[in-house]
Amino acid sequence: MAHAAHIDEGHGSEQPVAHAEGQQHPIRLYLVVWGWLFVLSLCSYLVDYFALQGLLRWGLILIFMMLKAGLIVAVFMHMKWERLALVYAIILPPVALLVFVAIMVAESDYTLLTRMLFLGGQ
User: Fold this and answer.
1) Pairing outcome for strands 5-7 and 14-16
2) Contacts of residue 97, Cβ cutoff 8 Å, sequence gap at least 6
């Protein structure tokens, strides 16, 4: 970087030129996110420590997992500062996949119920 400003040809005034180094974020942001990741991991471990069972256990674990993944993607992978089109290109396919998995789960329950009713549990 030999020169960080250039002279406007028409007016002779200097205007700053954007550096190609990338955007710098304050270290405090990363430390706060790291703290939240620690707290969410602690909560996830406490679910096991208190021996929660069933749907409550898996629901809490999945919620904590999604929150941690969201923080990592937003801050450490810099999605928070990307264009909306790129964010949609990254986020929408996994969301669509989760919707399709939910549809398959509902369909599997229907198929099992139908087999139990008409085939007598075979």
Assistant:
1) antiparallel
2) none
Q: Is the model's pTM score more than 0.85?
A: no
HSE at residue 70, side-chain half, CA atoms within 13 A, is: 9
- Which 8-state DSSP code applies to residue 26? -
> How many angstroms separate the most distant Cα atoms in the chain?
89
For 26-29, which contacts have Cβ atoms below 8 Å and span 24 or more sequence positions?
29/75
Question: Any idea what the Cα angle at residue 68 is, between residues 29 and 26, rounded to 5°?
Answer: 10
Q: What is the pLDDT along the chain (122 residues), one digit of tens a residue?
A: 444 444 555 555 555 554 456 668 889 999 999 999 999 999 999 999 999 999 999 999 999 999 999 999 889 888 888 888 888 888 899 899 999 999 999 899 888 888 889 888 65
With contact defined as beta carbons under 8 Å apart, do 74 and 80 qualify? yes
CA angle 108, 111, 112 (to 5 degrees): 85
